[in-house]
Amino acid sequence: MFERTLVDLIRGIRNHKKNETRFINQCINEIKEELKGDMQKKTVAVQKLTYIQMLGFDISWASFKIVEVMSCNKFSSKRIGYLAASQSFNEGTDVIVLATHQIRKDFLSSNQNEAYLALNCLSNICTPDLARELANDILTLLSTQKTHILKRAITVLYKIFLRYPESLRPAFPKLREKLDDPEPSVVSCSVNVICELARRNPKNYLPLAPVLFRILTNTTNNYWMLIKIVKLFASLTPHEPRLGKKLIDPLTNIINSSPSVSLLYECIQTCITGMSDHIPLMKLCISKLRTLIEHNDQNLKYLGLLALNNIMKIHPKAVSEHRDLVLNCLEDDDTSIRLRALDLLPGMTSKKNIGDIVLKLLDHLDTAEGQYKDQIIEKIIELCSMGTYQFITDFEWYINILVKLSQIQESVHGKLIASQLLDVVIRVKIVRAYSTRQMIELLKNPKLMSNPTEGGMCEVLYAAAWIVGEFSGYINRPIDALEAFLQPRVSVLPSHIQSVYMLNSLKVFSHACAKANGDEIPSLQDDDEEEDDEEDDDENEITHEIVQECLEIIKSRLTIFTHSIYLNVQERACLINELLSFYSVTQEQGNNISKELISLFTEQLNPVGPKAQKKVPVPEGLDLDEWINDPKHQEPIEEDEEDDIFNTNTGSGHKKHQRGGYDDEDDEDETNSSHSGHSGNHFNRHPIDIKRQKEERLRRQANNPYMLGGKVSKKSNDSENIPVVQLTGDLGHLHVGATSSSNRPMPSKGGKKIKKHYTIDTTIEMPEGAKESDDEDERDSKYKNDALSNINLSEPLTASDVLHTSRHRTDIIREKEKEMAMLAKKNAKLSPKSPPSSANYSEVTSPEIAPTKKASKKAASTTGSVPPPTAKKPSKKPAAATSTAKPPAQAAPAPAVVAVVKKVTKTILDDDNFKITCELLKVSPNEVDNGQVKLTMKVQNKTDEDMSDVSIGLKSSPQQCVSIKSSGEIGVLEADASTTHTEVLNVLDVLNQELQFTLVATPSSSPSITNQLSIILPFSFFIVPTKLPKDKFAEILQKSGQVSAMDSTKINGQSLTMPLIIEKLSQQLSIEVVQAHPNGQTASFYAKTTQNHHIAMLVKEKDGNISFDIKSPQSLLNQILVKEIAQLTFLSKK
Amino acid sequence: MIHFLLCFNRQSKVRLSKFYSTYSQTERNRATREVMNQVLSRSPKFCNFVQWKEYTIVYQRFASLFFVMVIDSTDNELVTLESIQRFVVVLDLVFGNICELDLIYEFQRAYQVLDEFLITGHLQESSSKEILRAINDSEGLEKSLLVAEVLDQHFL
Question: Compositionally biased, Basic and acidic residues: which spans (chain A) (predicted)?
């Protein structure tokens, strides 16, 4: 069949421009076929895949074939394979491990190019497994003389460190040596690697400073490397101030003389991070940056501004001298340069020039688009609100600016502008009258309502409506405002804006009434004087006729809102409707309730620090983590909870509950309070009644455990004429800025409470540095959990710092055998009298009920660190298999409890029908889940007919053991097939080692058979390996009752030494030595069962005879142990 | 370090791509698309650096092709730009007056040049002479091996 070559494929793709994907998919199908062919076909196929992969197609399905091509002997194929691998493999490619050996072989290939390929490829595809396996080989390569290999090996080392951090400590000395290599490109590669490492944990590399310094001062032409060295110093200097001083001269030198701009730029960056307190150097840097910014090259301009921004964070004054330069950059064609210049603006602004700068930004706004537009809006607001409006002298001007900003279409900053408006109006009293007039204009503006979306520019209307309503005392033509509030178009706005419209129309009306009646409006008292002049000019005195007109307008237009689809809007509208009809009714009766109406809205609103809520101190004796009530009582209260939390700052929020914030108001509370006012009037209740009601509510709240401010509100309850706090005096404590949406004015009752609130705000406010430290945490966290950055290189290397070496398992076994032989020889020398006995030679594990041929072959192994694969298969040489097991206590370092994984395999049933082998595994023998045993039974059907309804059930009593997890019924087991059944058991009774199971099966031709299975657990399964200090051991012995029963046993005629006994006991029974007598004849042992029985044992050795004295709480336990000891395998000879 | 390198034309066709940090294929495709959009939307008068996520894109246009390197924002943008230029110079030397078609049909050779120049996202060899020599060496070797193979097959 004809196959496409690579060129055919590429041509084909180019010719199928319209349906490229279809063509490629067709090719992929062809390639799948080709991959089944011979090596040559495969190579071409892989080559094509590489091209297809570049176009973004997934070729991970071909990974295995790629590995095959990689392993080809032909260099040209190998290269294609390696390229495909390095392009397409990633962490998830599991077949990489198959390539491990091939890569290792290619490292040492006689053809250097093959080594290059392997190294390059490894640098791309390195996984933790590969890194662990190949770390040693790479390290060996570092000793090579071949520069080209050396360079690659050094760089690949970085990847190895990343994926296998443990290799850093043992490998680092070699890497360090390479800094002294005569070949500059080798030094350069080492610097690259160290530079990357130092970014993660600079402290480790401080000792290298002298070497690096030497390289810095001696190298002149290789500026690629110099840049890296200078960058490396940037990470080191913050940790060693003396280094900074030393660097001043060489860096000044480079800055003044180097022809390379990139090196100059790097030096400046390093100076900024490390030597920022050296003023002359900083001045030099700034002047150099100025030349960069003035340069025609856009790139230099961009970088200059970027670096200048870094300096500004440290020396804002020095940078502000270059205001003209930065302002010029705002005119640049390139938005990214303009953005960088925008970043610098906050440092350039002053009272004098803020007007000019903002005007300039507004100019840009006309032509700007997309993201840049939003950035400008943000920047204007940031500049103006900086330091609580410290640069603004004319607030009417600022209100105008904000109004202008609100006219901008398609901006995401509606909320930001709205919160600014609210903030300014609340903080700056003199601007209220002006802004109220402006806001009415804004409300009338159809532009804002043209395309209302939540979060869009229409959010400004929210602020506008609130301002008009709240300060409607300044309005002389309430009809205008009401018409704006109740125009039909309003119903297209988002619901939260509509509901603010509703409530504020009521405010306007109330104020109009009050004015018409000549009532005193408390909220306006403070600044009446200023307003007087303006009001005098205005001829439009509010009359009762006007009020009547207002009433008509509201009533006629409200219908559309009382039928609103939004519940919150509907609720407000209905409320107002009711309130006004009540007003009309009382009006007709000759009573005027305008005073009561206005009293709903008389309280002053103050801005709240954005973090005030968080900083409310928890009252003494209140533990928020504890249940206050039983969980079941909680539900009915839950609904109120949110409201209460909102009110904590200000005590109970009654009477006055309008919000300028964005949270969907706590409607319930609000309507409650309005209702209380309303109903109070409606039923002509005496004010005392209202007061009583209020008190009652406060008491309720005070008793409410969720109400933090209960006490406060009680106190303030009786204070009626508390002076309202002057806003200006407190401005300094408050936060303004981009977050000011949370700056919403909160309802407050009286001055005392406000004061209270402010004290909260200032006393708990975090110190200046607190926020910075937050940021720092964040920055560090990038590398915090990274193993590579946690490695300390200054500690000397220890025995544990070795690289992983993989060897063949037979090698390991052979070595162990040798070791054992040596040990046995030594023993024989020590006790030549006793003849070697082979009696207990082959038995390793505990007793068995059905000792078959197979069973005696099983291998028991206890492994402390590495479970060798040998342990899984029954080994032909039991002696060898046992010898691989290390005594766990010796392998593991200090901890009292040593985790040992014990595994025992045995055949438990072998009759005509079934053969069942069972594997026991002690699962996590720690104190948490004592005595868990995992049982894996391999059931083989030996008959030639199918068995159905096969099941294995636990028969042992629940007092003895409980099944935690079981693989369930086996079901049908076909002839000659086998399956596995697993159980996880919790063995509760130490004294009964036998586990009983029932096997039920129904052969197809005969009645069902039942088999009893019995498995005896080795005693060691019940022992929690415990290392006990001497004093604790003595304590246990002394306490009566702890170890009351005592039994003894003896082993005679074996040439055993105490160290061997210690080893065997620990290894096979998990009984650990407490103290061994120096003469080598006596030792005490200790063990703890999973049921916390203490077992103490004293072992004496005399002339090769060993006596064991066992003490434990129960004699039965002793007997079991005696049996176990008798079956111990003491290996005295190979 | 360099996280990845891309080379593509105005029609968003990728001509070379090399990832030095590990990404899955979908992540690679997404990153490629995003970077291409960022770069292609810029006017030629603009500077050659763009911020993208926590990285910096450094790009340079040569005729119809864009060469892009995505680096850490703490890395030196200028020297990255220089390495792009150096890479293109070496490509030009190796191919002899390179054009887009050369890259398309001989992408493997281009990758070879790249491997000589960069490894693990770091500069391996800055001297173009050295790179050229290494490429010639390996190509010469490959040719001689090929000849030997052909001889093997036909005459022995």
Answer: 686-699
Beta bridge partners of A1023: A1089
Residue A881, pLDDT score: 40
Inspect the interface and report whether the beta carbons of B81 and A299 lie closer than 8 Å: yes
ipTM of the complex: 0.94
What are the φ and ψ backbone dihedral angles of A220, each rounded to 5 degrees? -125, -40
Contact B122 A158 (CB under 8 A): yes
Question: What contacts A931, CB < 8 A, 6 or more positions away?
Answer: A986, A987, A988, A990, A1021, A1022, A1090, A1091
Domain A901-1017: give its CATH architecture.
Sandwich (2.60)
Closest A-chain CA to B46:
A334
Determine the Cα–Cα distance for residues A489 and A502; give it in Å rounded to an integer: 13
Pairing of strands A947-954, A994-1003: antiparallel
Distance (Å, whole) CA B2 – CA B7:
14
Which of A90, A157, A230, A261 to mutate to test binding with chain B, by most B CBs within 10 Å of its CB? A90
In the sheet that holds B55-62, the strands lie side by side as B14-19, B2-9, B65-72, B55-62, B49-52
* A582 three-class SS: helix
Distance CA A290, CA A94 (A): 53
Measure in Å the smallest separation between the Cα of B26 and chain A Cα atoms. Answer: 8
Smallest Cα distance from B99 to chain A, Å:
16
Contact indicator for A1095, A1112 with CB cutoff of 8 Å? yes
CB spacing of B46 vs A188 below 8 angstroms: no
| Among B residues 32-61, those touching chain A with beta carbons less than 8 Å apart | 32, 43, 45-51
Which residues, other chains included, contact A613 with Cβ-Cβ below 8 Å and sequence gap of 6+?
A645, A648, A649
A282-286, A1073-1077, B71-75, B104-108: the lowest-pLDDT one: A1073-1077
> Any residues with CB less than 8 A from the CB of A482 and at least 6 apart, and which?
A505, A508, A509, A550, A553, A554
**Among residues A1042, A1050, A1019, which one has the least CA distance to residue A1111?**
A1042
Joined together, the tokens standing for residue A539 give 């001829």
Chain A residues in contact with B48 by the CB 8 A cut-off are 298-299
pTM (two decimals): 0.60
A83, A90, A120: residue with CB nearest B24: A90
* Residues A744-784 pLDDT 10s: 344 333 333 333 232 222 333 333 333 333 444 444 445 55
How close, in Å, is residue A492 to chain B by CA atoms?
Answer: 37
Give the distance from residue A124's alpha carbon to the nearest chain B alpha carbon, in angstroms: 6
Retrieve residue A99's tokens: 């390539």
Put simply, the answer to whether A90 touches B79 (Cβ < 8 Å) is no
CATH number given to A1021-1134: 3.30.310.10
